[in-house]
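2 proteins. here.
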Amino acid sequence: MALSDLTPRQREVFDFILDKITNRGYGPTVREIGDEFQISSPNGVMCHLKALQKKGLITREPNLSRSIQISEAYRQEQGIPLVGQIAAGNLSEAIEQAERFAFDDWFPQRKNQFALRVKGNSMIDAQIADGDLVICRRCRTAHKGDIVVALTDEGEATLKYWYPEANRVRLQPANASMKPIYCRNAQVIGIVTGVVRRVV
């Protein structure tokens, strides 16, 4: 049932169905899917729907125009994806992982949220410690002073305060013993919206 098992087009169709159900309250018709993806034949749409149904992602009721639903099994499996670890010390590339955490009691589920495990203590004065999980909202822009997941000029991911300056960006640690990172082309990947710490 992993989304990674879908073809690119199947994933696009599934995301379209999920968006309609989430934001409109009911699924799209076969015709709406065909119009969205310029599939002229209803049979072409049905091939994608049958594949999604076979993989356990959707259910369909025969002879109903708006019968497409997200499967209960898929809903139960969903949480905020833990996509890797993020440097809060020396720079380190974030690595994709398959593990998932469900934080429904703390954070409302949104499609643009993800979680990262912190490695290092450069944000310790912001109460973000080594081993914590940071919950992030995926976005491409940030305000001055936001705690962000950023890509440096070298393409490495780091967790820092975001401070745009005249012709560069200062990625400021929350640790008096560490120096800031200066970048000319830093990119925001997400903004931190919460921190989860496990106390043993």
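next one coming up
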Amino acid sequence: MNFSEKLESVVKEKNSCLMLGLDPKPEKFPKKFTRNAGGAFQFCSEMIESLHDLVCGVKIQMAYFEVFGHEGIAAVEKLIALAKEKNLIVLIDGKRNDIGSTAEAYAKAYLGDGPLSGDALTVNPLLGTDGMLPFIKYCEENGRGIFVLVRTSNPSAAEFQGGEGDLSVRIAEKVEEWNMTTQSPKNNFSSVGAVLGATIPEGMLSFFREEMPHAWFLCPGVGAQGGSMEEVLKCRKHGIGVLIPVSRSVLYASDGEDYIAAAREEMQKLWEAQG
């Protein structure tokens, strides 16, 4: 199945465009959890079990697991399997890319059929089209998806993303070019999406929707970072087309014995705010 169509199906089934961001920070865990890979897996798996009915998928931030070495990678493999059992979209947030055969290896690792493979992967586009083609191939042939970094929300992003010679606009144009071969005739969205920070200047999300009418938007920054859910939701078309990952505000809503109840309360608020 085309990734865009699969994504639409899960979003509508769950009645949610929210994704649970898995960013395990041991120093923020409730006391019952160990500060290692085992604790990270236990904590994240409990969150999936508790919140899977309110979200359409999970966004696994690889860096937080890589710090644990091979045990962290093993934890990711088990979390991928658990998320798939719950019929959740699995997005690997690794921002991978390289040139030639190395890009092909990244694509195979995260978009193939191996234990680290998800439904989608975040990708850095700065190496250009030859670095993107291996990932696009998996979108075309294997029903996978990618989300290309277009405009991020970190303070120094403006050094390259904004003002004269704004690279984000050029990347947006390329995203619309790269997604032509995987546009679904059923929903008019593509398997090649875009990462756009929810905290970018007001009006910019709408601008990028005009630039990329066929791209699903992954918009981190709602919640702890203060991004506007309302602004993100304005970019939907026919009720779909955006994904909102939330992590810190939900995962660490409490470090006491009520951590599960607190996390669910926070996610429930966001779920209701979707309208």
